[in-house]
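<discrete_fold_record>
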Amino acid sequence: MNLSFFDQFTSPCLLGIPLILLSMLFPALLLPTPNSRWITNRLSTLQLWFFHLITKQLMTPLNKSGHKWALILTSLMVLLLATNLLGLLPYTFTPTTQLSMNMALAFPLWLATLLTGLRNQPSISLGHLLPEGTPTLLIPALIMIETTSLLIRPLALGVRLTANLTAGHLLIQLISTATIALLPIMPTVSILTALILLLLTILEVAVAMIQAYVFVLLLSLYLQENI
């Protein structure tokens, strides 16, 4: 059976059952098991330091009322980071290349930040739709533009994450296919292509971490506007 470049983005199935849920739950196995002691080994120390660093970076722009979201945002960051990085391993599947999953994460959280602002400070939240000092003739157009930009925020979050990860996976597959195809014909060129593939893989690891951080950081900024 001939496989296309986009077959790597289809959810694997076992007996007709999609395994995307298993792919999402697998990163939880990397977390430390509960113990009566806070720090049991070097791995737990490193993980606690990493969680503290993420929480500090995400909560710094927020005021005290926004710290209630610390657990949600940190958990989302760890989930995205783990799924993005594990998806770079051979014979694995990356759930975050699916737009449906990213939209399922982005839309409810964006809606929660919006409803929080409308409930706590409705006048200030609605005031973002019309900048101060706007000429009278431009008021209807600016309200429509600001409303549109507000409504496409969850779509931008989901599409950004999906597009960056999909493009990186496709580039890795294209260059790896070229490396294998050139090996018997032009070994020297194949070796150079393999070096490019190694550099691209390192870049894709960085992209996987950066995109997870950007996704959660933008959510925290949306939250900051509404609290």
Summary: The chain has a mean pLDDT of 82. DSSP finds eight helices and two strands in the chain. The longest strand covers residues 13-14. The radius of gyration is 22 Å.
